[in-house]
Specification:
about 450 residues; 8-stranded mixed beta sheet; two-stranded antiparallel sheet
């Protein structure tokens, strides 16, 4: 029997995280800067909290209390501070901040599996379901596009940081140099540090001497190199050295510098502290941070893939939703308190939702794969907040108002971060290929 890809085991995640951590050096990661637009060192940042497995809209942001019992589930909606917008009773902190976020409730696609749904949501091209790792997309996903086009915001910080891994990430024909810097270690531990990101101050003179020696050694090879590739490599090495010998990266990752009350507000758990670290990184100048909402104490698996045959959806939601409520409300609070709401776009999303109609396995309730109706939360980015865009039917099973596609969502992301929507790159066959074949920014938001 084929296991659903949404319910990966611990070994799969450890392997994925370690591959991301060891596949590329710092100089390799920095090659993406050479493709950035001229205004790359300005512009906005983005935090993506990825709810892998597919969060059910019926238990989170689009409850249907008037639907038949086989649809509506156990949870009740509660009012928010924006009249007419209701969300789950297990998200009370977010209910007090609805004026500071926007919900997209009419998003839909036809991809049925985790892999092809992720491909559809993050590339704008419908993908095929792949049975075996590494599940890399055929087209560059939005994280690779943003890294290449928007580029770094600081010469002393990486462009894209992923914690603790980036599932189904793919640069495709844009090149592996756009891989993120993966931080697999847990910032909730007392001894958290990011190895290899800085050189101790006492060792910097010797480090500089060795860089000078390397430069002298390579000079002869550069003189013989007609293609100029050696000069590019030297440039990337020098920028990597700038990060290693500077203090910006070390300070940004120093989560111990945060006051205890702020760390408590995010939650003393791996997800909470990764979200706090994400805020620190974008505030320091990282362009893009992706955080995978994975392990929660008491949770039975590493996903939101709530099949009835796997576990009780309502029991697991009662474990996950308070954590989601805490970390997202803390991020939104900080974006506004620190005047970052115009400069940082926060996105909370997964690759799909789950069926509006409940399923049952030996008396255990659950929901199955479903992309035809799903919800996404956005905050900041200079977009218009305090609204719900689109609506679904009274049973939550189809868009009823303002149907939107993943391409519209991606177009909104690109528009916000200054990525031209008509941009194309040559694919592996050498043919110009648009970053988005269709889609328009969501007018209600911009």
């Amino acid at each position: 029997m084929n296991r659903c890809q949404g319910t990966w085991g611990r070994r799969d995640f450890v392997r994925t995280g370690m591959l991301g951590l060891t596949s590329f050096g710092l100089a390799d990661l920095l090659q993406s800067q050479s493709y950035a637009t001229p205004n790359a060192l300005r512009g906005k940042s983005m935090i993506v909290l990825w709810l892998w497995g597919g969060p059910s809209h019926m238990e989170t942001f689009d409850l249907k209390p008037e639907a038949p019992s086989e649809y509506r589930g156990e949870f009740q909606p509660i009012a928010t501070n924006v009249p007419g917008i209701e969300i789950s009773e297990h998200l009370p902190l977010l209910a007090q901040q609805a004026d500071k976020f926007a919900l997209i409730r009419s998003l839909h696609h036809d991809s049925p599996g985790h892999v092809n749904s992720t491909h559809t949501m993050l590339t704008g091209y419908v993908g095929a379901e792949i049975e075996n790792p590494p599940f890399q997309p055929k087209y560059p996903d939005m994280r690779a596009v943003i890294s290449r086009v928007a580029g770094p915001r600081s010469s002393q910080l990486p462009t894209h940081v992923a914690m603790p891994y980036t599932k189904y990430f793919g640069t495709a024909y844009l090149g592996n140099h756009l891989e993120p810097l993966v931080i697999a270690t847990d910032p909730n531990t007392d001894k958290f540090s990011v190895s290899g990101l800085a050189v101790e101050s006492s060792l910097r003179p010797r480090f500089t001497e060795r860089l000078d020696l390397l430069t002298q050694f390579d000079r002869y090879r550069r003189d013989l190199d007609a293609s100029g590739s050696m000069q590019s490599l030297d440039h990337f090495q020098q920028e990597a050295a700038s990060i290693l010998t500077g203090d910006a990266a070390r300070q940004a990752f120093d989560i111990q510098a945060e006051p205890a009350e702020i760390r408590d507000r995010y939650g003393r758990n791996s997800i909470g502290q990764r979200c706090l670290l994400a805020r620190r990184l974008v505030e320091a100048g990282v362009r893009l941070v992706t955080v995978d909402f994975s392990t929660v104490t008491g949770q039975k698996a590493f996903s939101w893939d709530d099949h009835a045959s796997v576990w009780n959806i309502f029991e697991q939601m009662k474990i996950r939703l308070p954590v989601l409520d805490q970390v997202v409300s803390a991020l939104i609070h900080d974006l506004y308190e620190r005047q970052l709401q115009d400069d940082v776009l926060l996105v909370v999303m997964g690759e799909m939702s789950h069926t509006p109609r409940l399923s049952n396995f030996n008396g255990q309730p659950g929901r199955e794969h479903w992309g035809q109706t799903m919800s996404v939360l956005l905050a900041g980015g200079g977009l218009r907040m305090g609204q719900a865009v689109g609506a679904t039917s009274f049973k939550g099973d189809e868009p009823a108002v303002r149907p939107l596609t993943p391409n519209d969502l991606l177009a909104t992301f690109y528009h916000t971060l200054g990525v031209p929507l008509d941009l194309s790159f040559r694919n592996f066959a050498g043919r110009p290929t648009l970053i988005l074949p269709t889609g328009s920014p969501i007018e209600e938001l911009i």
